Amino acid sequence: MHEFRDAAEHGDAERLASLLDPGVAVVVVAGDREHPAIRVVRGIHDALTLLMHGMAAKPGLVIDERSVNAQTGLILSRDDEPIAAMTVDFTGGLISMVWIRLRPEKLRHWNEV
């Protein structure tokens, strides 16, 4: 997870691509309970575009490696408020699935101690 985070944050598309399975899928879940919005992108090119845009260094964006649903994951925060949670699944040592949850109201408890 550290290498994935580092490559994305530093805009290293070549290194990030080397971590992804050719059939990688990125599932982004947003919206609310009554109107969930799910977007799925497939393949290295589309996954890279989405990940590099969402995880690129930006003022105020902090990416922390944390436990998410009992597995190693990432919490993206802005102004001390969590804005996304990410986890990944592996197949044969490569990232085959990236799960991204964009529901700030569901993420608030990750900011509490």
TrEMBL record:
InterPro entries (alphabetical)? ECF_Sigma-70_Domain, NTF2-like_dom_sf
Q: Name one GO molecular function term.
A: sigma factor activity
Tell me what this protein is called: RNA polymerase subunit sigma-24
The top of its lineage is: Bacteria, Bacillati, Actinomycetota, Actinomycetes, Micrococcales
